[in-house]
Amino acid sequence: MKKNLNKKIALIFAFLLVCLYGIFGVPSGLSGKALLDAMSKRIHLGLDLRGGAHLILQVVVSEAVGEETDNTMARIQQDLKAAHLTFSQVYKPDPKNRPQLVQVEGIDPNQSGAVRSVLDNKYSNEYDIAGNSADNGFTVTMKPLVLTALEKKTDEEAIETIRDRVDSLGVSEPVIQEYGLGDNEILVELPGISDLDRVKEIIQSTARLEIHAVLGGPFPDEQAALASVGGTLPPDQELVHGSGALTGSEADSVYLLQRVAIVAGSDFRSADPGTDQNGMRTVRFTLTNEAGDRFYDYTSKNVGRSMAVVMGGRVREVANIESAIRDSGEIRGSFTPEEVEILSKMLRTGALPASLHYIETSTVGASLGADSIRQGVTAAIVGVLVVMAFMLFYYRGSGINADLALFLNLVILLGFMGFSQATLTLPGIAGVILTIGMGVDSNVLIFERIREEMRAGKPPSAAVDQGFAHAWTTIFDTHVTTIVSAAILFLFGTGPVKGFAVTLTFGLAANLFTAVYVSRVIFEAHLNKLKPGELVSI
Amino acid sequence: MELFHSVNVDWLGKKWYFLAFSMIFSVAGIISMSLHWAHTGSPVPLGVDFRGGTQVELKFAHTPDINRIRQATEAAGIKDAEVTTYDVPSQNEVLISLPEQTNESALDVGRQAIVDALHAHYDNSFTVENVHVVGPTVGHQLEKQAGLATLYSLLGMLVYLWFRFQLIYGVAAVVACFHDTLITVGAFALTDREISLTVIAAILTLVGYSMNDTIVVFDRIRENLRLSRREALPDVVNRSINQTLSRTVLTSGLTFLTVLSLFIFGGPVLRGFSFALVIGILIGTYSSIAVAAPMLVAWQDWRAKRGKTAVLPAAKRSRA
User: Does B207 touch chain A (CB under 8 A)?
Assistant: First the structure.
């Protein structure tokens, strides 16, 4: 009996040590400060306690889809021309809501079979091709699986790009991840940052670099540009404004550009600031091999024409193609040093695949965070002291048992949190306080039952046995139902609420262990010491 | 020291008093919520994470004058700004809320506008403690999620109790929880407090707590029913409640004290949360005795009247 008991006590101590390790790791010393330092490495504070910025962004995936289908449209036109098949137009009937749908119209009915086979050959892997007898054409729609894959890829690329850019802010432990239930939302949490504007500038900047063929311009305004093409804009062209710097004045200028870029975005492999022979600031870029081939192809066929460098949706420079260019070039313009730096950084970290919308932002000041910690911890300490004092007063000797169990409970709870690298939020601290209240319930259940059994005349050890046996089913039921509640909260809640669910669950799990196993062992130790006829102090 | 041995109260006899008490508070809550709904389109004041919009928390160097602040924002052309004090007066903190923006790209404009307006028109330096900007889609998403979470929680508990006891136990417990939630949410409407996501967490917790409490009583009823098949159900239920009374009062008391500590010391951010728990724990304890237990007996009586056999194994009539 005694040996068994010693083994159990040893087990409990071992468990206690493991949990202490979870909380503190191996601290550098035993002073208060060293312990606190060690703890803060293991237990992470949530944003509401540390202060920082919290953003939820939505990726406008339809832009990425639109770009992909723009490319497809251009390739379809090339392929049909190469096969000498006639068509009146290739366009997207609803580019805003259904960017995945492309329409080919005006086919010669005799050539319909040939057109079909061209489309089938090249595009049927990714697109569904349907005949459209009404206007002698075909409808080419991106397959739903392909569409979903593209959207997912866009989300992932956005997350990667944001991560790179946020790194440059030097934030420790940023959180950047998918958020929510599949609406292309991204969560960004940056502890310690309170200047939201700067964050947005760094993340949001769609400094996409693109090079387009110039078809007309510069025009003084959009009307003049449209007039040059007979009033309506053809679907494969677009109007882009110039930046005032080009003309040396603040006057607006509008260019007519080919919609599909010659090279764009991730085709750029690197970009660095430089100066040209006149001392003007420039951005030197290099393209990837594949893009370099395409660029060479285009420029060698279009010597004498112009191309425009478009950045952030504005024309930055217009250059004449003097000779074929393969994969490196220089963008000249009157940039400020900051602009050059930002542009280079943007190009180096890759372009965002699509724009981002902010749908929620919040910042918590650091002082508010510190206040919250102070208040939460005060409330917790008061709560613990009140409960411990009461248990001692009401249950006398067994009160010590309950208090030990309570203390162990807290240590185990913090240990779990340390091991799982869970985040402690303000509601999480509230969860700890709640665990104290609910945890002591188990002890009360057991002790009340023991008292009842003793009143019915049972000897101490039998009373203790019966007390634990009867209380167990109730303790189990109550803990399971609350854990179910907490699990649902975890699934549906956001950051702070998740923190609450986590501490509550850990606390209840720890409680099952301490109330049933540890309390039992303490009772056994106490019973062993009792003289015959002596009653348990309860 | 022992408070409650040999208690022998006839709880079920008092059920009409309990019913009256519950009705008064439920109805008061419902009326308050209906009035609020008529006024503002939602039954309770909603926190910014549900209703969307901008909320800025400012801490001033000197005591802030609400009227001056309102004038300052109006002078800068900011419409519909709601200005309220926050936390205790000694903190000099003010909360400024702007309504929901339908255009999500204009999301952060509100905060900057408020800061600029105050710098320009109100001479009292301040720091921005906390900013929360919520677009309309997120607010609605959150409402839906909160509603689903509550529903799933109750359903989960119902299934668990059905599994461990019998269906009627589950139903009685869920009705009691629903009663608790109604009165707690009603209390928010009555005291004009906001319901934020953390408050929803508190409400789900109190559902769990109320369940706990009800289960303790039910467990005892089940045990007693197994032991004695001669007693009438009302007698068994009364005895079970009396036997568990000391545990109930103690646990509720202690949990209540810890939550009260949170309410008093826990700071303004958690105040809504702790308020929900303070009310919830009291009502949750009450409902196990006053709502769940009487429901069991009422169900039994109803089945007996219909001539069906007893679902809960107890003698049909009291052998008095």
Answer: yes
DSSP secondary structure code for residue B292 in this structure: I
pTM for the model: 0.74
Q: Tell me, what's the pLDDT at B280?
A: 93
Q: Would the CB atoms of A365 and B127 count as touching at under 8 Å?
A: yes
Please list every residue in chain B whose beta carbon sits closer than 8 Å to the beta carbon of residue A410: none
User: Quick one: average pLDDT of B192-204?
Assistant: 86
Q: For the segment A339-355, what is each residue's pLDDT rounded down to a tens digit?
A: 666 666 656 555 667 77
> What is the pLDDT of chain A when averaged over all its residues?
81
| Dist. CA A249–CA A251, nearest whole Å | 5
Chain B residues in contact with A378 by the CB 8 A cut-off are 265-266
Residue B259 in contact with partner chain A when CB distance is under 8 A: yes
The candidate with the shortest Cα–Cα distance to A387, out of B89, B262, B182, is: B262
Q: Say if residue A466 is exposed, middle or buried (CB neighbours under 10 Å; 0-12, 13-18, 19+).
A: middle
B270 and A437 within 8 Å at the Cβ level: the answer is no
Q: A198-212, A300-314, B155-169, B174-188: which has the minimum mean pLDDT?
A: A198-212
Fold for B12-41+139-305, please state it. Answer: Multidrug efflux transporter AcrB transmembrane fold (1.20.1640)
Residue of A128, A68, A115, A113 whose CA lies nearest to A88 = A115
pLDDT digits (tens, 9 = 90+) for A11-33: 888 888 888 888 887 777 777 77
Query: Nearest-CA distance from A69 to chain B in Å?
Result: 26
Smallest CA–CA distance, residue A286 to chain B, in Å, is 34
pLDDT grade, residue B105 (50/70/90)?
low
Select from A510, A488, A489, A487 the least CA-distant residue to A435: A510
Q: How far is B223 from chain A (nearest CA, A)?
A: 9
| Cβ neighbours of B197 in A, within 8 Å | 493-494, 496-497
Asked if A436 reaches chain B (Cβ–Cβ under 8 Å), the answer is: yes
Contact A178, A144 (CB under 8 A): no
Specify the DSSP class assigned to residue B107: T
Helix A460-492 vs helix A495-513: angle between axes, to the nearest 10 degrees? Answer: 160
* Contact indicator for B67, B94 with CB cutoff of 8 Å: no
Of A8-17, A206-215, B285-294, give the lowest mean pLDDT range.
Answer: A206-215
- Report percent pLDDT > 70 for chain B: 92
pLDDT of B315 reads 54
Contacts of A178 (CB under 8 A, 6+ apart): A155, A159, A185, A186, A187
DSSP code of B315?
B
Domain ranges of chain B: 12-41+139-305, 53-134
Nearby residues of A337 by Cβ (< 8 Å), 6 or more positions away: A273, A281
Residue ranges of domains in chain A, CATH in brackets: 2-51+366-529 (1.20.1640.10), 61-147 (3.30.1360), 205-360 (3.30.1360.200)
Beta strands in A99-156 (DSSP E): 101-105, 127-132, 137-142
- Is residue A455 less than 8 Å (CB to CB) from chain B? yes
Cβ-based neighbour number of residue A449 at 10 Å: 23
Of the partner residues A197, A437, A496, the one whose CB lies closest to the CB of residue B255: A437
Which residue among B104, B200, B247 places its CB closest to the CB of A359? B104
Strongest mean pLDDT among A21-30, A480-489, B108-117: A480-489
Query: Tokens at residue B168, please?
Result: 């009627």
Q: How far is B298 from chain A (nearest CA, A)?
A: 24
Percent of chain A with pLDDT over 70: 91
Q: Which option is the CATH number for B53-134: 3.40.190.10, 2.40.30.10, 3.30.70.3400, 1.25.40.10?
A: 3.30.70.3400
